Amino acid sequence: MTGEPRGFHRDRGYERERWDREYERDRRDRDRREADRRDRERRERSRRGGYSQGSVNTAAIAGAVIGAIIAKNT
User: Where in the chain are the domains?
Assistant: First the structure.
């Protein structure tokens, strides 16, 4: 015997390397998709101006009330 694995056991190292490569590829793909999602969300937030709809509505109401007060006193 030469000390080398025979039969099925000889291929286990290859299978383990293949599984490791597949795992790393899947992990890279998953990380890339997550980064793409974060970038897409960041771009969408910047397009909206960075303010929530509630903040925009509150500012509109406050502006209307202040405008009415100014118009009444003029």
Answer: 7-72
